[in-house]
Sequence to fold (234 residues):
Amino acid sequence: MRKLTLTADHVARVHKVVQDQGLTAGAELHTDADYDRWVEQMIRAHPAPKAPTRLFAYGSLIWKPEIEHIGEQLGATRGWHRAFCFRMTRFRGTPEQPGLMMALDRGGQCRGVLYDLPEDNLERQFGKLFRREFTYKPANSMPRWITVETASGATPALTFVMNRASPLYAGRQSLEAVADVLARACGHWGTGAEYLLNTVSHLEAKGIRDRNLWRLQRLVAELIERNPAERNVL
Fold:
């Protein structure tokens, strides 16, 4: 396996102890009733309810799946690509130094991991997934059924795509601009650099080489080395 430029040492250099500032003014959270409606809507829209239900993971769900799965395989989807297009003012960023997280954005293609979900309680599994993936209104990372190509053919799968109508949609940015954010941003969950390192290293372990992410991790490492941050408490 090719060696990454970005390392845990780089992550440690930019990590800070950040106090959670809580909800921003005017922010509205989804309620249990809202999540129940999302679950009902997505189960009702299931394109193949008698086939195995699959989840397409392309980022943190690969290294932190959250829910049980009974099988997995690699797959690719067309019309969507990984992008650091989700602006974060909490969790891995702050209002003063916003971070970026990945979502599926329109265009291109994306290779990822398909998880086979147990069929016994989809409502509970979807409810847990949705609470993990989106908290604020409007939903930023929206559940959607897509088609994923695998070695055994095409299959429908649930995934999460960026809501371009969200005020937190950051749009398309150059890798250099994204690297500048990830090399600096830190929230109470950790740094953008850590998020990137976890994603690239776990993709690589699955045999998935994302050229943009591979270049991005090198850019972030170089920026951290050029501009070492002092550790402090925010």
In short: The helical segments are 8-14, 32-44, 60-63, 122-133, 175-182, 192-205, 211-226. The beta strands are 54-57, 71-88, 99-116, 141-150, 153-162, 186-187, 190-191.
